[in-house]
Specification:
The structure is a single chain. With about 260 residues, the chain is of the alpha/beta class. It has a domain at about 10-95 and about 170-240: 3-Layer(aba) Sandwich (Rossmann fold). It has helices at about 5-10, 55-60, 105-110, 125-135, 150-165, 180-195, and strands spanning about 15-25, 30-40, 45-50, 70-75, 75-80, 90, 170-175, 200-205, 220-225, 225-230. It has a 6-stranded mixed sheet, with helices on both faces. A 4-stranded antiparallel sheet has the order 2-1-4-5, covered by helices on one side. Helix 3 (about 105-110) packs parallel to helix 5. The model is unreliable at about 1-10 and about 235-265 (pLDDT under 50). It binds adenosine-5'-triphosphate. Adenosine-5'-triphosphate binds near residues 28 and 50. Adenosine-5'-triphosphate binds near residues 48, 51 and 53.
């Protein structure tokens, strides 16, 4: 095989594949036949209204939600047999980094490196990776602080640093910008841009594209547990401008029907 073929193989490699995925939570069907493909180097945004199944889909991918039907593959391996979790970084939705146990920022971010550390022991290169991750999210100056002393947005940055510390090939993030102010969103967007430039594949749940918009290759929109759009991301900024957001023009006559464009609602 030539070098060029090798590169092309990597580029077209499927990193995440969902086929006919169904899941129930309690008695409620939450995923109702999802197909989704994310290829090497792609940045894919998972969009949709509250309760449409975005978090459940992401949690299904990382093995936290059992499937009732269908198949998920990670790096070409059936998720049920996938063990190479060090290749994947995950930022969960709206949790705190504290978890009830007193820990410093460095300790939390170091935990994200353990999957890469041989025998669970952090060596110099691992500690450097932890420092780099803290630098990337602009939290290096808080390294020794207790995570209890952080604001919500700072927690979020620490969780992102924890995911980056493993230098993952695939980043899965569930609303990484939730509770993060615009200036910090710009910092995180820049961080992500650098990761993507290095070839990291990204799947992220978003409500607004915001500063991430230029990075997004493709948007997949869920509605009631089904994919209703898989293609170019909505062009305009902000959820109010996303296709599918019901919109009544401010000067429309009273009682006018909202304009529905069909993607999100
Ligand atoms: N543990 C659970 N038990 C029962 N139903 C659940 C559970 N967790 C979520 N659900 C339901 O599953 C559906 C999808 O939830 P999910 O969190 O995946 O949506 P989402 O698209 O991520 O929403 P949001 O934008 O609000 O985060 C919702 O109707 C929710 O009520």
């Amino acid at each position: 095989m030539s070098f060029t073929e090798g590169v092309m193989d990597t580029k077209s490699e499927t990193v995440i594949s969902l086929r006919g995925v169904r899941a129930e939570l309690g008695a409620r069907p939450v995923l109702r036949g999802i197909d989704l493909t994310v290829r090497h180097g792609e940045v894919v945004a998972l969009l949709g209204a509250n309760g449409s199944g975005k978090s459940t889909a992401v949690r299904g991918i990382i093995g936290q939600v059992p499937l009732s039907a269908g198949r998920i593959e990670l790096f070409g391996t059936d998720r049920r047999h996938f063990r190479d979790w060090g290749r994947l970084g995950y930022v969960p939705q709206r949790t705190t980094a504290a978890g009830g146990v007193p820990a410093t920022v460095t300790e939390v971010v170091s935990a994200g490196r353990l999957s890469r550390a041989r025998f669970g022991v952090l060596r110099k290169a691992d500690r450097q990776a932890v420092r780099r991750a803290l630098d990337l999210v602009g939290m290096a100056d808080r390294a020794r602080d207790s995570v209890d002393a952080l604001s919500g947005g700072q927690h979020q940055r620490v969780l992102i640093a924890r995911a980056l510390a493993a230098e993952p090939e695939l980043l899965i993030m569930d609303e990484p910008m939730a509770g993060v102010d615009l200036a910090s969103q710009e910092v995180l967007a820049e961080t992500l841009r650098e990761q993507v430039a290095q070839g990291t594949t990204v799947l992220l749940v978003l409500h607004e594209l915001g500063p991430l918009e230029p990075l997004i290759d493709r948007a997949v929109v869920l509605r009631d547990g089904c994919v209703t759009h898989d293609g170019p991301p909505p062009r305009a900024l902000g959820q109010h401008a996303l296709p599918g957001h019901d919109h009544v023009h401010p000067h429309a006559p009273a009682g006018a029907e909202p304009i529905r464009t069909g993607l999100l609602s």
